[in-house]
Write a structure and sequence with these properties.
The chain is mainly α and 98 residues long. 74% of the residues lie in helices and 0% in strands. Helix 2 (21-47) runs antiparallel to helix 3. It is elongated, with a radius of gyration of 21 Å.
């Protein structure tokens, strides 16, 4: 089940250029949520001792690193969108100079 979901999310990340900017931000946010859920599931499995401590720590670390990477990408994406919408300062024209 994880592999199918990860394949779909990965395919979506590869096709980000076909999405509109709001859709891109939503997709990145969904990826962050899914990676957060994965980290919580790995930690819960470790607390129940369903998996070894080493497996718990490695799996949770990978999931949390994906959360950090996704959050960084989302922040950069939002900053780029904000810069595109900000009015740009232009040099004064000859008619403005006196």
């Amino acid at each position: 089940m994880f592999a199918i979901r990860n394949a779909a999310l990965g395919l979506g990340l590869q096709r980000m250029d076909s999405f509109t900017r709001p859709q891109q931000q939503q997709f990145l946010a969904v990826n962050i949520v899914m990676d957060s859920v994965d980290a919580a599931a790995f930690l819960a499995a470790g607390l129940r001792r369903d998996v070894s401590r080493t497996s718990t720590m490695l799996s949770a670390a990978v999931a949390l690193s994906a959360v950090v990477a996704g959050t960084t990408a989302l922040i950069e994406h939002r900053q780029a969108a904000a810069q595109e919408t900000e009015p740009t300062a232009t040099a004064p024209s000859n008619s403005d100079r006196k």
